Amino acid sequence: MDYPSAKKRRIDDDGFGSVCFEPANDHIPWQKTSDAREDRHLLGSDSQWESVESENHNSIVCYGMIRGLHGTCTKPPDEWGLGACDFSVSARSANEFVAPNLDGPVVVGKFATEFVDMIHELIDEGNLRLQFKCMTTQPTKHQTAKRSRGSNLVIPCSLSLILYGPLELSETVGDFFQEMDLYLQDPEGCDWNVKYSNPHRLSSLALEDCPMTFTLHLGASGPDLATLQHICSNKDVSDIFVAQQDLDEAPQPNAIQSHLKRHQKQALTFLLNREAGWNFDPASADFWDQGQTSETSTFFVNNVSQSHQVEEPDEFCGGIVADPMGLGKTLTMIALAATDALKTNLAPSLIIVPPPLLDTWEDQLVQHVKGGHMKWRRHHQKDKILSHTGLSDYDVILTTYHTVMADWGGGHGLEDKVLFSTTWRRIILDEAHVIRNFHSQISKSVCTLQAAAKWAVTGTPVQNRVGDLAALLKFIQAYPYNDLGRFDTDIGRLWKVGDVKEAAQRLKVLSNGLILRRPKTVIELPPRTDLKCPVDLTAEERTLYERLKNSTISQIEEALNHGSKRPTAGSYINVIQRINALRMMCNLGLHYDSRYEIAGVSLNDAANWASQAQVVFDLQRQMDPIVCSTCNATCDLATAMINCESQGRPLFAQCLSFFCADCVQGYNRRKRTMTCGHSPPHPVAPVSLEFTDLESGPGVLPMSKPLSSKVTALIAQLRRVEPHVKSVVFSSWRMSLDLVEAGLEREGIGYLRFDGKLPQKQRKPVIDEFKRNPKIRVFLLTLSCGAVGLTLTEACRAYLLEPHWNPTLEEQALARVHRLGQQKEVTTVRFYVKDTFEERILDVQESKKKLESVLLERRDDHRSSNSLDHLEDLRRLI
């Protein structure tokens, strides 16, 4: 059947120096290609496909859009303009497409080989209408230089396809694409106003209930910018330590070639002053003052507790550098070490870092230090220092927390260990919050080291409770609060009885002279806009969510309705896994499968528990830190970050008792069996603290369904971003990133991925590739890998796929982008699903940011005996 030619209207310059046209919306006939053949049909027999009369639009629907097709474009060299472009094209055959113009086809392209068979079958069905759009980017200098003078330029392109056809064949079309592992998405820019019936999304709707393509209001698809909600900036718990000190600027050390910013020179003044020891002048910020009772008699006043003593306080050199993430603390500490450069007979500075940051520190030293002015080396694995010979030739020694703990070995034979038999010029702990539990072996070993000055560097001196700070004070030897009992007497007892105001005031006085924390406004960073993106579930997704939610509520109520009996550990575990099911479903949508749920826990079944313990352990530590039942050491995400070198595995009991690796090793050395203390004892099983286990999803993600609403919203955001803008996407789970990856593949958006499975030696090359390759637009990271130590200022957009229980971890991740060195305005977007458990997590985050919640946190919050309290709390959240 012959069809009239489509009207065309001029829309804009296409970026190639020519004019683009697209069909006008007032009359859109079918586009039928000239070379349709009468051979076999994959989509069905001839009898299935009725002729489509242009006047009978009621039986015609839009099936949706296929994204991520590839090809190449060819144009004469004088017709390529600047910038990226997207324009309508027509399939001339299964192999080629053209872009029409007034003067004839000026852009000729070829479909990638893997799509030729598919397009061939679609063209053969002459009653289908194929609406193609081609998207190109600015030709690179390499592409331009590669062609010979005067020849046509060939560049890669991506294409999308909107497909129209008879309603009764909607399911057949859906099956055809599903067999090819391609899935129909919501269309954008339809040129015909018909009913939208997507066999992969809306097949359950009657035709009269289907929306019209012109009224989908998708625009760029997904949430419009107007629906994004601004996040009000609330004070962080650590902001109590912010002091308004107008410090002088120290001179720049000669060994540093990078220009120090004003705030870094001021920080250097603070560091050098603190390394000079106590300043008893009442005008200073130190919390010790000196007074006189007579001309010959003096006394010393502790301004925290207002206590007096005759003896001069023990000497203390060092402090805590707690500037927010992104202010260049690493360079500041390198500058401090550089003040000793070229001095003779000085011990080196010992810098202790988590293993992933060893390369980062070495890179920073290379970048910022003048050649020949400082020497450094590692004390790690095969590069350990075995004697003091030549040690003073170095300015900096780099090592890891686990290396220190391994060399310490419980405190035996330290005189033979270089780390412990040396009095270092200074010790610098990077990410110092990892020692915040003073009962842990890492904390004990680090506190044993000797140095003239000790520095704890962390953007989060308080993460979960005020006791986090006590461990740092013990390490830096800030008299008298290096004594944990004294800290508890002067400060801890106040928050125990609820006197928050006085506790906060004492913390402020304590911190003024020994903690350096400035607001981020001390540097001129580009503006950062924080947004929340609420996502609506589809009807099918909502049905699935409500089913999971009701199952969870029933499980909780069953556990709580035991009369006088407390809920069993098994009941609590089953509830926790269902809570996680709700969270995962918000990310995965219809891709969530009940197979991902672990089986109900059978008490005293050791074999069953061995297969379940890791999953339950990961769920529990995502919600709250887990405390060792023997030594009270805390296990959370910060522990996971430094544990990749651990030589032992902790144990986790079915009653939720946890035994850290240090305690397990101690029991093993004494040939004792570790039990939970119950009678009869509950089964125990070894668990891993590493990233890969924390990130793991419970199976392979099936790709037989459309993208979830949340991932669709994310892809829509990424699609509307200009091609030269780089973005970072964070998620707690690799499985969620699998789904995002599928969406990016369909869109033809270049990306790289960094999670716990990426080998250590490949991590730096992957980061470098993201920074330098203009075709890589998106960097996918798991939260546990991306929250610490990385600088990703090449990106200016960051997305958090789901809310995390710990808001500090989220902020650490976002600070990878908004930090010193960022030249562009930054936008962060946090996704959450409306009317789901994710909204409750946001409420929990807000409470954790409040000082009162930190000061008043119960000491026994993480004990298994409180499972009843936890269940009641979770019931309220759901």
UniProtKB/TrEMBL annotation:
InterPro entries: Helicase_ATP-bd, Helicase_C-like, P-loop_NTPase, SNF2-like_sf, SNF2/RAD54-like_C, SNF2_N, SNF2_RAD54_helicase_TF
UniProt-listed CDD domains: DEXDc_SHPRH-like, SF2_C_SNF
GO biological process: DNA repair
Transmembrane feature ranges: none
GO molecular function, one term: ATP-dependent activity, acting on DNA
Xref: SUPFAM superfamilies: P-loop containing nucleoside triphosphate hydrolases
Chain ranges of the Helicase C-terminal domain: 710-875
Keyword tags: ATP-binding, Hydrolase, Nucleotide-binding
Domain of life of the native organism: Eukaryota
Domain Helicase ATP-binding residues, every copy: 310-479
One annotated Gene Ontology cellular component of this protein: nucleus
SMART domains: DEXDc, HELICc
Protein name (Swiss-Prot/TrEMBL): SNF2 family N-terminal domain-containing protein
Phylogenetic classification of the source organism: Eukaryota, Fungi, Dikarya, Ascomycota, Pezizomycotina
